[in-house]
Give the backbone structure.
Amino acid sequence: MSDDRLIKMIHLLKQRTDDRKISWEETINENIYQSAFPKYTIQIGYYPNDSFSKNIDYFIRILDEDNKVIEDAKDDDLKDELENSFEIMGTLYRSVRRQAMGVDKALDSILSELENGD
Amino acid sequence: MEELLEQISKRHLGDAASIIGLLIALIGFSFTLFGVWRSKKAAEMAQEEVRSVKQAIARSSTIADFSAAVTTMNEIKRLHRAEAWVVLPDRYAALRSMLISIRSTNPDLQVEYRTAIQNALQQFSDIEKIVERSLASNKPPTNRAKLNEIVSVQIDRLIEILEEIKRDIGV
């Protein structure tokens, strides 16, 4: 059971990430990226899952000022309120990763160099 | 004497004296009001001066705290390279205290700076957990190469903030 506000937050995070209005960075934990706010931190990532239906679980986590996890939801926990939660969380994860790794910046820069070389 | 009083009465000198008295009283009162206003202004200016001195002290203390945090982060990088896992938890704790202290003693810190502090606190909290786990299992952390990569990002950000604060106060 998840909160509607969490679902709204997931949609907004995707939108703001695509608009490059939120910055994400790598964490020490592989496949986990984070974005900080003045009082909270959001982490998005995935864990391996051994079930037959899928091999990973995407998650979103909110941590407070004391670095305590105050919300932790896997795509499965969100499926009642968020249709196609696995795909949506997967899309968000990939956007976040691209931003954190600077893929868009790299592509923009390389494209601009290539176009100027004409 | 009687003649003098009669002349005063005849020429309405008493009325003139009252009017002159009133004018003098008004002028005196204006001077008093001006004096009060000047004292108030001087007190306000003194208060403003005290406030700006306090702010300058607070800002230089913030600069010193940020510099100390950067120094500790650089020390942490050296300890990571030396794989001195046993001493690292104390350094992480010291750094976290510094960052928390900067945040709590500067409630009017810019949103951008507070975000950077929150980000660093979370990164070091996660790093600390990994190092603590590795100490408990008696094995070095598996992702050692990434440790300093993350610390360097935090150092660069704090240095940027430090330079911005210095620029703001003209240091």
Summary: Chain A has a mean pLDDT of 92. Chain A has four helices and five strands. The beta strands of chain A are 25-26, 32-36, 41-48, 56-63, 69-74.
